């Protein structure tokens, strides 16, 4: 039986891969912290996502992982850090042999991970999930692991719900005020954010498809929207090019100015009335903030809209993918952009009515 009075624990959570993967760990982090506010939650993340980890309200401490290719000295320093941490439990959301070995060498008594790959030999608690079947959202798989750990620790498994990054209501107005001042934006028009980049991993629409989508959405709205394009490192030129294409099509488009770090960029997304992107890190940031999202996904099983569903409320998310035809699962040109434009415009209309 779970004991709500079970003592607080020092828990190390590892999600040391891409940005979107880390954002989909926030529901699990929220559950671990809410099980006992006195739990000390440490995350091990790559340097790229560390600014967001430090902004996470469910995290007490951030450790930066030097990565698989770091030298022996860096790996030894990480091992020493883990030993000094005196963790009660290790929860690895994405298991690799190196992390399993480090947790075992650090003497962490309870080590839990998915029962996949040979890395599981380093863990003394393993949960079978069969994620390759993509039968659930990634964040639900992560939550299942967190709850399994809580049961092992004798703690409650609290219900958690969006937003998983709860910010004060004033934050949205502050971000809109800042962007409005920077770019001269009209606050009464819909602000539709569009992230055309892919971060080098997700299959995405082409710039021409995004242009056609934006034209289709704009034509269906009573008040012409403002298109705000976001860009990751190295994607600025592509975003500027799309902004120019949208301008040539008669739409008003701007690129969101650069921010000093990833956490500051993430907070900017609070200004969005709706965020449009492929299944990328920024889409999952917007989902964590519970902003309305429209995501574009391939049809292959490992990357479906269900598996990589954003973690905002159901009424705040739209998802589009091509027909699941053999051999054409990643052929994004088969997505019906007119149907997508209709659905996005209808969602904006619904939001307008709810705010009247």
From TrEMBL:
Alphabetical UniProt keywords: Glycosyltransferase, Transferase
Superkingdom of source: Bacteria
Keyword Methyltransferase included in the entry's annotation: no
InterPro entries per record: Glyco_trans_9, LPS_LOS_Heptosyltrfase
Alphabetical list of Gene3D superfamilies matching this protein: Glycogen Phosphorylase B
Pfam family, one: Glyco_transf_9
Signal peptide: none
Descriptive protein name: ADP-heptose--LPS heptosyltransferase II
GO BP term, pick one: lipopolysaccharide core region biosynthetic process
Gene Ontology terms, MF aspect: ADP-heptose-lipopolysaccharide heptosyltransferase activity
């Amino acid at each position: 039986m779970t004991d709500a009075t079970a003592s607080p624990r020092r828990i190390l959570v590892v999600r040391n891969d891409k940005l979107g993967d880390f954002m989909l760990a926030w529901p699990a982090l929220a559950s671990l912290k809410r099980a006992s506010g006195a739990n000390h939650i440490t995350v091990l993340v790559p340097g790229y996502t560390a600014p967001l980890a430090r902004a996470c309200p469910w995290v007490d401490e951030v450790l930066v992982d030097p990565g698989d290719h770091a030298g022996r000295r860096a790996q030894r320093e990480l091992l020493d850090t883990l030993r000094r941490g005196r963790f009660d439990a290790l929860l690895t959301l994405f298991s690799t042999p190196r992390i399993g070995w480090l947790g075992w060498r650090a003497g962490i008594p309870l080590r839990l991970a998915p029962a996949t790959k040979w890395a599981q030999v380093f863990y003394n608690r393993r949960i079978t999930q069969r994620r390759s079947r993509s039968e659930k959202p990634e964040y639900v798989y992560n939550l299942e692991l967190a709850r399994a750990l809580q049961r092992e620790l004798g703690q409650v498994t609290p219900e958690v719900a969006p937003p998983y990054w709860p910010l004060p209501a004033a934050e949205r107005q502050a971000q809109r005020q800042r962007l409005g001042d920077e770019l001269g934006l009209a606050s009464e028009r819909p602000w539709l954010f569009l992230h055309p980049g892919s971060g080098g991993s997700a299959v995405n629409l082409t710039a021409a498809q995004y242009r056609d989508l934006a034209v289709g959405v704009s034509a269906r709205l009573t008040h012409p929207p403002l298109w705000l394009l976001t860009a990751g490192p190295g994607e600025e030129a592509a975003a500027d090019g799309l902004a120019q294409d949208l301008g040539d099509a008669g739409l008003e488009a701007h690129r969101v100015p650069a921010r000093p770090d990833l956490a500051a960029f993430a907070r900017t997304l609070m200004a969005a009335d709706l965020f449009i992107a492929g299944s990328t890190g920024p889409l999952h940031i917007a989902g964590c903030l519970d902003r309305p999202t429209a995501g574009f996904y391939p049809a292959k099983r490992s990357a479906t809209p269900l598996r990589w569903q954003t973690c905002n409320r159901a009424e705040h998310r739209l998802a589009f993918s091509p027909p699941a035809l053999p051999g054409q699962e990643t052929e994004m040109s088969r997505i019906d952009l007119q149907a997508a434009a209709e659905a996005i415009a209808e969602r904006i209309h619904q939001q307008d009515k709810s705010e009247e």
